[in-house]
Structures are given as structure tokens and as C-alpha cells.
Amino acid sequence: MDFVSILSIFVMACFVGYYVVWSVTPALHTPLMAVTNAISSVIIVGALVASAEAGSAAAKYLGLLAVVFASVNIFGGFAVTERMLAMYKKKERK
Amino acid sequence: MHEAVASVPPFVALAYLVAGVLFILALRGLSSPATSRTGNRFGMAGMAIAVATTLYTHDIANLPEIIGAIAIGGVIGFITARKIAMTDMPQLVAAFHSLVGLAAVLVGAAAYLNPGAFGILDAATQQIHNASRIELGLGVAIGAITFSGSVIAFLKLNGNMSGKPILLPARHAINLGTLAAILGLIAWYFVLPAPTLTAPWLFWVVIGLSFAIGFLLIIPIGGADMPVVVSMLNSYSGWAAAAMGFTLGNSAMIITGALVGSSGAILSYIMCKAMNRSFISVIAGGFGADAGPAGAGGAVVDRPYKRGSAEDAAFLMKQADSVIIVPGYGMAVSQAQHALREMGDLLKKEGVSVKYAIHPVAGRMPGHMNVLLAEANVPYDEVFELEDINGEFGQADVAFVIGANDVTNPAAKTDKTSPIYGMPILDVANAKSVLFVKRSMGGAGYAGVDNDVFYMDNTMMLLADAKKMVEEIVKGLAH
What we know:
The structure holds two protein chains of two kinds. By secondary structure, chain A is mainly alpha-helical. Chain A has four helices and no strands.
């Protein structure tokens, strides 16, 4: 993709982010941080590219290391978010 | 290999776009606890699509190794997420931020060493494209700052390092100089005709300096400002991912980076506003270095206050029609949330209306107190944010303050010399009576200021460990 179309995606996503995040209820700000943490580990895509391609052994191992770190975050981030969200309960009405 | 990357079939770009949209829906779901879990599933699906697409579109020379790496990381992450105590959530988030930062640095370094794999090699010169150099340079710099900054934030939150700000002499000059050097080197790297030949050290120096500046930026920031720091690092981790997304031309990474970046920035803004501090003054650091004005400190000792017992508190609350509980970080430290919920339940049985009032900076990170109360099974519709409940203190019979201090201090409204002046507070003083659970009369809050609420006629001080006091009150209510 050329730079301008990438940039347009980025700018649009910033606006979407702005409005979506303001609509998040303050009670869920901690899960918000946990889940943003998990999704920012989409950087694993870059790590996978580095570790999948032959060409540089050093790059491959750096990539694999990055895959480990990003995976900690992905699994940990989603799991801890899930755990927190499961705790939020409404008042039981009899 | 880079030709293959350049000519990806359209469905690949589409798949990354779908992943990006699913991430947006994941955040969208958090607008209400009812939809939040579905949102989280969307996030997981998005991640699965992104990973599967990447693996599918590359000739993978070493799939077992990659799967092994994912499994190792996955198991560590999963177990940590299961075991972590909710009170330690800020540390965990800081640790996770540091990993995103480090992963960004590693990916950047790998791209630098093997640019062909990332499709950023200029075919004519056999050098990395100039535009990619900027993205790469910014990506590793932000990643490195996120990493070292988060490590310091983790150490401070986890208590391995004092929460007190560490102030180096001439730190502003050092920091600005380092930042200028990083930007200067990235610019130089950008214009350099043949970086790998003439100055291979340049890239690594950028990384090294960025690690240093992340460290230097966070050490002068005090414990009270940690909610802002954690939010800010959240934002950085997003921008780092976005920069890497530019390098790879990957829409999922760019969308996610922008989402996370804005999210962290908005949370920082909310936290700053809740403390009436400007973002710049938080970044400059040093808050809480001295223990407030000496005059106020001297006057603390002699002022008369009323001390009450758990029985008194139980009696008072039993007679009340409405009680508003104001929890603060002290409640979390003594793990009093379960006992507190029990107290709330007993009061409700007596026909007392019980509500919880949460100040935005009540915990160590945004929304922390809400999670702790949710963990103790407090229904979320009994928990209210500052602006929604502040007007109700006037009608409340009892304000029960536990482990909070600065967020109830009227000096924030009246005393222009106070370090917390201008901070929005919970108006507990308006309640008919105030029960203030505090360990002892010494040791004011983080800001180191005395609180006039302690000495009001309608305030009863309950001096004890928060958890013990609440358990005693529960006993008092039970009979």
C-alpha cells in the first residue's frame, strides 16, 4: 500500500479511537487498558514475518523472541480482561 | 521474498482490515458491562485472524519454532492472568506494556537486519527505503521508551522501588538533550544515503538512547501520578505498534495502534483532569517530593478530633437511611473490599440504602477501584462516578470514607496554596455525619496535606487497619 492510503487509514482510526474510547464507561477503564494491551500485541504480525523468513539468522531469533513476548501479552491480556469482565454483575433482583 | 510481500492477494489486506474492525468492536463493547464480554471475544477473533493471515501468507521455514514460541508465551501469559491479584492489576498492566515495547524494538531490529523480508528494501539501492527508515526509527524509539518506562513504572507500583520521585540535577536539560539527540539521529538516518555501510551504529544508538530516556522520564514521577504514567505508557505502546504497522504496510497494526494510542491519551487526559494537574507538570515530575507546606504539617498534631469505635460506627449506620461508601487505595492495600461488601449487605438488610462513590483517581490506575469492588461482588449498579453522586452527599446520613484522603479534602476547593487546589473532590463533608477509616492521625495522603474533614464536629475518626475496622463493624451490625 502506498504511504498516503496507509496514512488515511491511520488518521481515520485515530478519530474512530477517539469516539469509541470516550464512550467507554469509566467503570471499565481498567479492562480497557488490559484489552488495549492485548490488541496492541498485534505487533506479533511483524514478529511472525521476521521469524518466518529465512535470510538472517539474527533477525529470525529476534523475531522469535518478539513472538514469545507478544504471545504473553495476547494470552495474558485477553485472559485477564475476560476474568475482570466476568466479575461485573448487576444487582440481583428477586 | 519481498516481491511476494509486495504483491499480496487482495483477500489478505481484507483479512487484516477485518481484524482491525474486530478490534474496534472490542473497545466498543466496553461501553457497558453488559456488552463487554462479547467485545472481548471480538478482540480474540481479530487477533486470531491477524495471526492466521500472517502465517498463511508467508513461506514458513520454521513453523515448529514459531508454534513453540507462541506456546511458551501463551502459557506464561495465561497463568499470570489467572493468578494475578486484582490489587496488583496496575503492575501487571505496566509489565504488559513493557513487553509490547520490547516486542516493537525486537521487530524493528529484525526489520533492520532483514529488510527484504519486510518488503522495505529499495530494489535499486539495496538499502531500506527512506520513508521506512523514519517509521522504523520512530517505532523502535517509542518501543524502547515504552519498555524502559514501563519497567520503572512496574518497579514503583510493585514496591521494588520507592514511589518517591528521584530527582536528578539538571534532569530537564538531560531529558530534552536526549530527546533532541534521538530525533536528530533518526533524521540523520533518514537522509543518510547508505546507512548500513557508513553508520550501522546509528540505529542501535537510537535504541540505546531511547531506553535511557524512558528510564529518565519515569524515575522523577511520584507514586500519586502513576495512574497518568500507566495511561501514558499505554498510549506509547499503541503508537509503537502503529509505527511498525507503517513499516509493514499492515492495516490491522495501524488501526490497532491508533486505537490504543488514542485510548491511552484519553485516559491520561481524564486522570490529569481528575487531579487538576497539567500533563506537562506530571511529565516534568517531582510531585510529592516534599511533604507539603511545613506550616500545615505543624498544625496537624494539636487539632481536636473525635475518635469512635466500631460499635459506634455500626450503631450510627444502622440508624441511617442512606450510606455512601467512599473507597480509596488504602482499602485495596488492606484488602478490605470483601469485608466492605459484607458490611454493605448487612446494612441493606436493615433497610439502609448503600451506594459507592468512586473518584477517578481512587486507585493506582483508571477504573481500578471498580474492578476491586466488582471482585468483591458489589453490583456495578451500586457504584457511581464522582459527577453522578456528588450531589447526593447532602442528603446522605453517613459518608463512610475508607482508605481515601486527598479525594475528600475540601482544601482542594478553598485553599489556593494547597498542592491539590482545584482537584475535583467528593463532597463527603456535606453528609450529616462522616465516618473516616484511617490507620492513624499521622501520615496524610499522597499529596502530604492535612484534611479538614478529620476535625469537623460531625466526623468520627475510626483509627485502625481498614480491614480490621470493617470486620469489627460487621460484627457490630450482626447483633
